[in-house]
Design a protein that fits this description.
The protein is of the alpha+beta class and 138 residues long. The chain has 2 helices and 5 strands, in the order αββαβββ. This is Cordon-bleu WH2 repeat protein like 1.
């Protein structure tokens, strides 16, 4: 050592430790124990019903282009996009050219996500519709 005092630019660069995140606010809700237990039981019952539907086969009416109606059976665990591919393969159609619409027993349209199992939806009729392809501009 040559007796110099260390200057700040000579000291190794140190990072400040990150501050910890604040604790979440404490919940001060007071709920009736019996009503909470009832809601948990009813939720469990609904989930059990849905799981039972997924494990069963689902009977569907399929409306093909040209209003041809066919009937098919699929397993309730089949995701919706797999259903599209399955139906298109079964009826010799190109899956990239078609979409599916779902109708309930009351003829209401059913919204779904591509990975939703068919057994979780109350589907009675599947409509295979040709996609409306826009002409691409050069």
């Amino acid at each position: 050592m040559d007796g110099r005092t260390p200057r700040p630019q000579d000291a190794p660069a140190r990072r400040k430790p990150k501050a910890k995140a604040p604790l979440p606010p404490a919940e001060t809700k007071y709920t009736d124990v019996s009503s909470a237990a009832d809601s948990v039981e009813s939720t469990a019952f609904i989930m059990e019903q849905k799981e039972n539907m997924i494990d069963k086969d689902v009977e569907l009416s399929v409306v093909l282009p040209g209003d041809i109606i066919k009937s098919t059976t699929v397993h309730g665990s089949k995701p919706m996009m797999d259903l599209l591919i399955f139906l298109c393969a079964q009826y010799h159609l190109n899956p990239s050219s078609y979409t599916i619409d779902l109708l309930s027993a009351e003829q209401n349209h059913i919204k779904f996500k591509p990975n939703t199992p068919i057994g979780m939806l109350e589907v009675e009729k599947v409509i295979l519709k040709p996609k409306m392809l826009d002409k691409k501009k050069p």
